[in-house]
Design a protein that fits this description.
The complex is a heterodimer of chains A (235) and B (78). In chain A, 37% of the residues lie in helices and 23% in strands. Chain A contains 6 helices and 9 strands. Chain A starts with 5 loop residues before the first strand and ends with a strand. Chain B is of the alpha+beta class and 78 residues long. Chain B has one domain: K homology (KH) domain (GMP Synthetase, Chain A, domain 3, 2-Layer Sandwich). In chain B, β1 and β2 (30-37) form a beta hairpin. Chain B is globular and about 35 Å long. Classes of the chains: A alpha+beta (235), B alpha+beta (78). Chain A binds chain B through residues 68, 91, 94-95, 98-101, 131-132, 134, 138-139, 141-143, 145-146, 149-150, 153-154, 225, and chain B through 1, 4-5, 8-9, 12-13, 48-49, 51-52, 54-56, 58-59, 61-63, 65-67.
């Protein structure tokens, strides 16, 4: 499946709608064109007044050629996947060995993620791997980034490898979803906004999606870089 | 061991692996590693907003923890 290249999204302000769209597309502000379809409090196409902004965010045609771009422009072909998992496994084994970890890795079953991509999953097994996961999975994310960069260098394509330890990523996803639902109940009950801990984009997306259908609350991201966090508001 | 890890990662990321050098200074619990790369390869090991360097340092810190030391990584161009 091709990665989504345009998205229509509504939120209370134009700015927050654009931010949500960038998060879902995994793009930066420079890589997209924004069209404001409706400003808050403007009547929609049926003439009804609405308090939500609606924007169309499209990836710029030149963005895909940007040299710093490291995201897949298409799904890997079966033979590319095969090579990515072989080379990825080799690179990850070398890294684990050089990191003095007593661990091995194998190719795990792939399940589609929230963007409809199918990452190549490499599962690490071994002793005392807590340090490899790190606080909120930070070390694991860093190891995953290094593996992807090295494999990209060798194969000339972005391999979209996901590194996991003992099912950590799936457990983390589930615990974020249940945290989001519990928080939604609390925000609805107290009518007070709630600010989450800083999270990487993929984890913020899980929070946004978990309560997207919940009409009692809405979510926005705020802050920059490593301090970026989700805020949940009563609707 | 940590030096080998740094060499492995750096040489795997750059276009000029023969130029990669690592020196270490310090003894005991805190060691600083100086990684020298070709000037043209600085972006390859540092990345946008230092993202690759951060990932590099995280991976190094996991290995250092295993060895019971703290490791700093300084990246310089030749």
């Amino acid at each position: 499946m091709r990665k989504r290249e345009s998205i229509e999204i509504s939120a209370t302000t134009v700015e927050s709608a654009v931010e949500l769209a960038l998060e879902q597309l995994g793009r930066s502000r420079e890589e997209v064109e924004v069209t404001v379809l409706r400003r808050p409090n403007e009547p929609d196409e049926h003439g009804y007044a609405t308090d939500e902004a609606l924007v169309l965010v499209e990836t710029r045609s030149d963005a895909a050629e940007a040299p710093q771009l490291q995201r897949p422009r298409h799904e890997l072909s079966p033979s590319e996947r095969m090579r990515a998992s072989q080379v990825g496994q080799e690179v990850l084994s070398d890294l684990l060995h050089h990191m003095s970890l007593i661990a091995s890795c194998h190719v795990g079953p792939s399940s589609g993620n929230s963007q409809g991509e199918m990452p190549v999953v490499l599962e690490v097994e071994g002793e005392d791997l807590g340090v490899l996961i790190g606080r909120r999975g930070e070390n694991l994310n860093s190891l995953q980034q290094i593996v992807n960069l090295i494999v990209q260098k060798r194969l000339g394509l972005w391999p979209n490898i996901q590194v996991d330890v003992a099912g950590y990523r799936h457990k983390r996803e589930q615990s974020l979803e249940s945290l989001a639902r519990r928080t939604a109940r609390r925000v609805a009950d107290t009518q007070q906004p709630y600010t989450f801990e800083p999270m990487p984009a993929r984890e913020r997306r899980i929070i946004h999606l978990a309560v997207q259908q919940d009409s009692r609350v809405y979510t926005e991201s705020t802050g920059e870089g490593d301090e970026r966090r989700v805020v949940m508001y009563p609707a | 061991m940590l030096e080998e890890l740094i060499l492995y990662v750096a040489r795997s990321l750059v276009d000029h692996p023969d130029s990669v050098e690592v020196y270490s200074r310090g003894s005991g619990r805190v060691v600083t590693y100086y990684l020298n790369v070709d000037a043209r390869d600085m972006g390859k090991v540092i990345g946008r907003q230092g993202k690759i360097a951060k990932a590099f340092r995280d991976v190094l810190s996991v290995a250092a923890t295993r060895e019971g030391v703290r490791a700093n990584l300084e990246i310089r161009e030749i």
